[in-house]
């Protein structure tokens, strides 16, 4: 039987080990326990591996600033990311699309 990790203690240890990290553009990420839990789970609760992964993630987010990226398609063509262009997604339209009818009457 596998031992259940003490999640609270691991989160506190990870917070302590990474207290030097900051994300000015996204401060909520490092203030949220769920972030630490998600990273810990992804590394099977291995604190050292999790710290390494979190540090790499913060470095990447600091360099590329993904929260500041604006989608030009969204601003130029509202609805550009819908399944059927120019039509909001609804169950009827989705069913028509799935069955090969890509022309949707309005």
Automatic annotation (TrEMBL):
It holds the Pfam family CRAL_TRIO_N. GO terms for molecular function: phosphatidylinositol transfer activity. Transmembrane segments: none annotated. Residues 32-57 form the CRAL/TRIO N-terminal domain. Gene3D superfamilies: CRAL-TRIO lipid binding domain (3.40.525.10). InterPro entries: CRAL-TRIO_dom_sf (IPR036865), CRAL/TRIO_N_dom (IPR011074), CRAL/TRIO_N_dom_sf (IPR036273), PI_Transfer_CRAL-TRIO (IPR052578). PANTHER family: GH16843P (PTHR45824). This is CRAL_TRIO_N domain-containing protein. It comes from Echinostoma caproni.
């Amino acid at each position: 039987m596998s031992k259940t990790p003490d999640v609270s203690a691991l989160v506190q240890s990870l917070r302590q080990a990474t207290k030097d990290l900051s994300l000015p553009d996204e401060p909520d990420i490092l203030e949220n326990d769920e972030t630490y839990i998600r990273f810990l789970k992804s590394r099977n609760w291995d604190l050292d591996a999790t710290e390494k992964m979190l540090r790499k993630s913060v470095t990447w987010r600091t360099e590329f600033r993904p929260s500041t990226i604006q989608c030009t398609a969204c601003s130029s063509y509202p609805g550009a990311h819908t399944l059927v262009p120019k039509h909001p997604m609804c169950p009827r339209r989705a069913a028509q699309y799935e069955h090969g009818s890509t022309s949707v009457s309005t």
